[in-house]
Amino acid sequence: MNKVGVVLNTKGDVIGAHKGVYSYTIGQRKGFGIAGGKPLYVTSIDPVSNTIILGDDKELWKDGLVGTDTSWITGLPVDLPLRVQAKIRYRSEPADAEIVSFDRSNNQVIVRFLKPQRAITPGQAVVFYKDDLVVGGAWIKKSFSWNHAN
């Protein structure tokens, strides 16, 4: 499972090697042994191509996510967009967000954060709150920036 692969910069240049994509996470800074003038962070992991991309901290900040396998505790939302607080990390504070759409056919949700969030990580859970009550959650499939999505 841990197969050596390439590490790229955001321009697509090979800048190093890694010991398996499953040993790294979005936002990670250490463990690459790559010298550079500025800190580099894991901004993307592609398990299919066994590639890791490193970039600046600013590239970790996104204001949108796609979630899959969505579960609703309080029933399906009737009116969208639905203002919620969304939590993307166990120790993080919930952030103001909107559930923009929910596709029943593939159980997929699209969420827009009012302020960009750092290191929204595929494979992790996002939990939705309304007035301190859990209303639902999903598994993060991918993150994106709204200004680049349209």
Automatic annotation (TrEMBL):
InterPro entries: MnmA-like_C (IPR046885), MnmA-like_central (IPR046884), MnmA-like_central_sf (IPR023382). Pfam families: tRNA_Me_trans_C, tRNA_Me_trans_M. One of its GO terms (molecular function) is tRNA-uridine 2-sulfurtransferase activity. It comes from Candidatus Schekmanbacteria bacterium RBG_13_48_7. It is an enzyme of class 2 (transferase). It catalyses: S-sulfanyl-L-cysteinyl-[protein] + uridine(34) in tRNA + AH2 + ATP = 2-thiouridine(34) in tRNA + L-cysteinyl-[protein] + A + AMP + diphosphate + H(+). This is tRNA-uridine 2-sulfurtransferase. Residues 3-56 form the tRNA-specific 2-thiouridylase MnmA-like central domain. Its EC number is 2.8.1.13. Residues 63-140 form the tRNA-specific 2-thiouridylase MnmA-like C-terminal domain. One of its GO terms (biological process) is tRNA wobble position uridine thiolation. Keywords: ATP-binding, Disulfide bond, Nucleotide-binding, RNA-binding, Transferase, tRNA processing, tRNA-binding.
